[in-house]
């Protein structure tokens, strides 16, 4: 089991299965397992500003902000940790095409 800090991933470029740069790691989705945390996946995109407000999971933004925050997150995608092939220098290489990734991490929950 490898151990690392979320800060080691944040901001890294993400390259998809076809070799195309698809964004950068904006957030890390984790689950707490006792005293440890397990990485479930990565949130990719161009900007993390809307997500930093806490919207994107089950928390809905106030009506006036819904369109603005939705527009700000339009490039956001979620990649399951199992689809990460390797950490290659300053990039995260994923084994799937960008188009197949869900738009939000909660759209992927089982």
TrEMBL record:
Domain named PRC-barrel: residues: 1-40
Coiled-coil region list: none
Organism lineage: Bacteria, Bacillati, Actinomycetota, Actinomycetes, Streptosporangiales
Superkingdom of origin: Bacteria
Annotated InterPro entries: PRC-brl_dom (IPR027275), PRC_barrel-like_sf (IPR011033)
Stated name of the protein: Sporulation protein YlmC with PRC-barrel domain
């Amino acid at each position: 089991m490898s151990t690392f800090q979320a800060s080691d991933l944040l901001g890294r470029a993400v390259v998809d299965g076809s070799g195309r740069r698809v964004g950068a790691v904006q957030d890390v989705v984790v689950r707490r397992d006792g005293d440890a945390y397990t990485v479930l996946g990565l949130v990719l995109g161009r900007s993390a500003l809307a997500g930093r407000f806490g919207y994107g999971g089950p928390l809905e933004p106030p009506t006036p902000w819904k369109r603005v925050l939705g527009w700000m997150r339009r490039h956001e995608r979620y990649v399951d940790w199992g689809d990460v092939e390797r950490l290659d220098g300053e990039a995260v290489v994923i084994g799937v095409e960008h188009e197949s990734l869900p738009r939000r991490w909660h759209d992927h929950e089982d």
